Amino acid sequence: MRDAEAPVIIGIAGFSGSGKSCLAEALVREAAAQGLRVAYLKHDGHADEAADDWEKPGSDTARAAQAGASVTMVASRRGFLLRSRQEGGFREWFAAIRAVADVDVVIAEGGKREVHAKIAVVRGEDEWRRLLAAGATAIAAVVSSDWAPEGFPVPVFRPHQARDLLAWWRDRWREGALVAPTISG
């Protein structure tokens, strides 16, 4: 559910090597240039299955985590890095960002099957079809460097159009048009 005080959430989904991170960086850069406060959330699907190795080996926070701390934080006057062992998904991660930071925009990379609206980054029609077959939902726009189907049900942007994409997304968000899935498999 969307609320007027919540930041704009821009989801980005696609396969490895499709350009998700490059698009995320371009959107972060564009939003920051417009004076917006931006948070970046990266879901690492590989880490879901891997050993818990986020802490620097032997560090104070690693030892505290090994001793049983479910939350660790490295902090200075310039900022902090918070780590939590509490299980959850995008809903909890968005809530955590809201709890610790006052931001206007959250760029969330990953989570193709999640219910929040997202941009599909694909390298052509075959990859688009594979993404839908993999369970991608709530696709509100597509970014592709070499594919622009006519009559497609959602807008298709090019990677260099971060400014246009951000403006389009923010307008739709304000209208409440990006709350529910727009396209599904």
Brief summary of the model shown:
The chain contains five helices and eight strands. α1 (20-33) crosses α5. The protein has helices at residues 20-33, 60-67, 90-100, 125-133, 162-175; strands at 8-13, 38-42, 71-76, 79-84, 105-109, 118-121, 139-143, 156-157.
Notes on the structure:
Mean pLDDT is 84; it is low at 180-185. It is built from five helices and eight strands; from the N terminus they run E-H-E-H-E-E-H-E-E-H-E-E-H. It has helices at 20-33, 60-67, 90-100, 125-133, 162-175, and strands at 8-13, 38-42, 71-76, 79-84, 105-109, 118-121, 139-143, 156-157. The chain is globular and about 55 Å long. The chain has a domain at 8-46 and 102-175: P-loop containing nucleotide triphosphate hydrolases (Rossmann fold, 3-Layer(aba) Sandwich), CATH 3.40.50.300. The chain has a six-stranded parallel sheet, with helices on both faces. The protein is α/β, with parallel strands linked by helices and 185 residues long. Pfam families: MobB. InterPro entries: MGD_biosynthesis_adapter, MobB_dom, P-loop_NTPase.
